[in-house]
Amino acid sequence: MTLSCPRCHTAFVVPRRRAQTTATAIGGVAGAIQGASSAMTEAKGGDPMGVIASAIFGGLLGGAAGCAAGAVIGAPIDQVLPDSFRCQACGYVFDASRTDPALT
Fold first, then answer.
1. What span, in angstroms and rounded, lies between the C-alpha atoms of 83 and 18?
2. Lower Cβ count inside 10 Å, N or C end of the chain?
3. CA distances to 3, 36, 60 from 43, in Å
4. C-alpha separations of 74 from 2, 17, 27 in Å
5. Per-residue pLDDT of the chain (104 residues; tens, 9 = 90+)
């Protein structure tokens, strides 16, 4: 079933993904901080370049893991949020499960 805009009846409708985007950003930042911190703690007392390299690598891996976890957590939240779709043709924001009888 193709979702169409209740106002202009076009099929140019996209999900807004507000919760998924927010959770991905928060998870990425938190994961990067945690990964860099853990890597620096583990590499303590070694070569300074090794500590820096492990902090960068740990931050990248932690950030990627945090982004993935945030996306998984945010996706089901988007399904229950109101106004979760936007028409790209007219800009109308609406729910897929609820249609406004005044617009049809």
1. 10
2. N
3. 52, 10, 16
4. 23, 8, 10
5. 678 899 999 989 999 999 999 999 999 999 999 999 998 888 877 788 888 899 999 999 999 999 999 999 999 998 888 888 999 999 999 887 765 545 44
Cα(42)–Cα(73) distance, integer angstroms: 29
Tokens read off for 68: 């993935």
pTM: 0.77
Phi, psi of 17 (to 5 degrees): 55, 50
Paired residues of 93 in beta bridges: 86
Helix (H, G, I), strand (E, B) or coil at 33: helix
Tokens at 104, concatenated: 């049809």
Give me the DSSP letters along 36-87: HHHHHHHTTTS-HHHHHHHHHHHHHHHHHHHHHHHHHHHHHHHHHSSS-EEE
